[in-house]
């Protein structure tokens, strides 16, 4: 990953205050009254002695609306113009929060990505942050006690100077990267739940809030579908060792409650075997039947998909009875399903297969826990429990701290609840 540059000598001066980045998601800034509530949280932290940079998302639903407008304007729109449109939601909320803070007597100024600047690579729509110059923000902390209100989700492509957005959920990454750049003591991610749960609390009412989660576990949970944090934000937090605290913005600002700390593994006293269950509906399955069982076939299938930037995840190869041909099943992101099938049809003469079939009504359910490293048979227990519920497993993958099963989407909730209970995660 690229660096998030540190802002010169942030701690110069005798009595520098500790710094804090506070990020508020879409539901937390959904209207002016909620923005006022956000301002109260900010004011509390200033009074507690922090210099504060706030990162805001667009009002909830706004980014979806902007994305839909781009599609309506033209299904195959220019990615640079998409970014010009979708970045606007955060411009509005950053300005509004600065106004509300000023109204409460707090010195505040809004910042768009290009004004800081937050520099990115060229991947419009899912750009990566390359550097952040936090020096002006830090200078204003000491010279004016000014709160920086930063528009999340956006930066500026360093070569062209054009606005670039960081992918859906990207304000989390803006916040953690900014925390790294200004040497913040912590990054607080305020959202509509009071922390990271053992699984999505909207699906499993018995889900429990976790006190602490290791960076690596959170990275797997986010990658495997727990959208509470953008995957990239966890990567940045892990690499730059930014303690990241997920907490609720709906708490009474005068009486903040506990959340979940994402931290180094060493800081977690007692690791569970399984910490959480995640699921992702963004999967599709493709099966190639009667593929020749000879060297070079896997390359003939997967190289064209890789060349088209299609991420293949689970792969299963079955040897047929005749030993001459085999069936190969694999998964791709559902957004890439049609494209993947078209590529395979096009390459059919080089690959050589009898037919290609597929399914999009599938879901990947995963269990994650650093304790799996030292416990055998964790996944095997799941296979048994799922079979007892009549759930058929289409594909399996395992790695050091997680395993995943691909099942019919209709069984998502049953499977998640079954595994949640199996590993003792249900709240009492
Ligand atoms: P924000 O708009 O604040 O960025 P998000 O909608 O992106 O909020 O993320 C919060 C949501 O993530 C929660 O409302 C919850 O439904 C969902 N979620 C999924 N998995 C988990 C989990 N393991 N713990 C907590 N929340 C989760
Ligand atoms: N507003 C953007 C989105 O909805 C970024 C974010 O909220 O993190 O994806
Ligand atoms: Mg989010």
Question: Could you explain the architecture of this structure?
Answer:
This protein has helices at 32-47, 62-73, 79-86, 88-103, 135-144, 171-181, 215-223, 231-240, 297-307, 337-346, 348-351, 378-388, 412-422, and strands spanning 19-24, 51-56, 108-111, 118-120, 129-132, 147-151, 154-157, 163-165, 186-191, 212-214, 244-248, 260-263, 276-292, 315-319, 325-333, 355-368, 395-399, 402-408. Mean pLDDT is 94; it is low at 5-14. It has an eight-stranded mixed beta sheet with strand order 3-6-2-1-9-11-12-10, sandwiched between helices. The chain folds into two domains: 9-265, Acetylglutamate kinase-like (Carbamate kinase), CATH 3.40.1160; 270-428, VC0802-like (2-Layer Sandwich), CATH 3.30.2130. It is globular, with a radius of gyration of 23 Å. Helix 1 (32-47) packs across helix 4 (88-103). The protein is built from 13 helices and 18 strands. By secondary structure, it is α/β, with parallel strands linked by helices. It binds adenosine-5'-diphosphate, aspartic acid (ASP) and magnesium ion. Adenosine-5'-diphosphate binds next to loops.
State the gist of this model.
This protein has 13 helices and 18 strands. It is α/β, with parallel strands linked by helices.
Taken as a percent bin, the fraction of beta residues is 25-35%
- The average pLDDT value, as a whole number, equals 94
By CATH, the architecture of the largest domain is named 3-Layer(aba) Sandwich
Shape: globular
Q: CATH homologous superfamily name of the largest domain?
A: Acetylglutamate kinase-like
**Overall helicity:** 25-40%
User: What profile does the largest beta sheet have?
Assistant: 8 strands, mixed
Q: Based on helices, strands and strand pairing, what is the structural class?
A: alpha/beta
Number of helices: 13
Q: Any idea of the CATH topology of the largest domain?
A: Carbamate kinase
What is the name of the CATH class of the largest domain?
Answer: Alpha Beta
Total separate domains: 2
Using only C-alpha atoms, the radius of gyration works out to: 23 Å
- Oligomeric form of this entry? single chain
